[in-house]
User: Fold Alpha/beta fold hydrolase from Microbulbifer epialgicus.
Amino acid sequence: MEEKVVTDNDISLYSESFGTPADEPIVLIMGAMSSAVWWPVDFCTRLAAMDRYVIRYDHRDTGKSTSYEPGQAPYSIEELADDVVRIIDGYDLEAAHLVGMSLGGFLSQLVALKYPNQVKSLTLISSERLAETDPDIPPIDPSILEYHQRAATLDWTDRDAVVEYQVGAWGISSGSAHVFNSELIRQIAQENFDRTPNILTTFNHSTLGGGKEWLGRLNEITVSTLIIHGTEDLVLPYTHGLALKAAIRNSELLTLQGSGHELHPEDWQVILPALKNQTSDL
Assistant:
């Protein structure tokens, strides 16, 4: 693993790469409030072993990248998507395959619309459309919202408490297909806490606006698009995956039966070969 800090004026983005730069490049984009460590090292190294150059990075306000005071994010959702292109340019790549999870998939769609020449393909995992809210699509499950209400009373300086809170959050977001791997999630949550100077800055992602001019334009996406979605996703129910497939021309849908809003190691045996196929330079 190689570390690299990409800078642009007052923005600093911490990233890590796996594999050989001559191979097909993949940029991994994690979800809201999550640093790059939520793409497990083992996942990245296995993908790199498939002759891929894999890059993961910390969003602004997570990990080792530029962060701002809690509640004072001076950027929009569109500017958070611009960071993906900063990473592509920072590695001297003409274009890259984008693999986004949850908010990462939302940002990937925006990048594909705004910078079509720098996107080789899209893979959208547990994601929703870059579109106006559809009242016919089920919202987040009430159990998820109820769990996260405890965030208001949590001591966010208490490492153990924050880690256990995050373990619980991933636990209720998991599906029934696999046994929840609490130890792996706990290890990642600890690393995530340790590399983030003030974990409260991650909540800035929940305040972001902007990007409205890109809503409802998914029919303009022409790159190969793979959608991966679990049937037991309580955060973004499976209907979101179906809606994405309907909105993006010629997209493919890989359904994970019984999986939730997660990147479970037991699903990697399906996900990784699919990513290899999706990112082949045909």
Summary: The CA atoms of residues 222 and 249 lie 7 Å apart. Helices lie at 41-48, 77-90, 103-114, 142-148, 159-172, 182-194, 238-247, 268-278. The chain has one domain: 2-278.
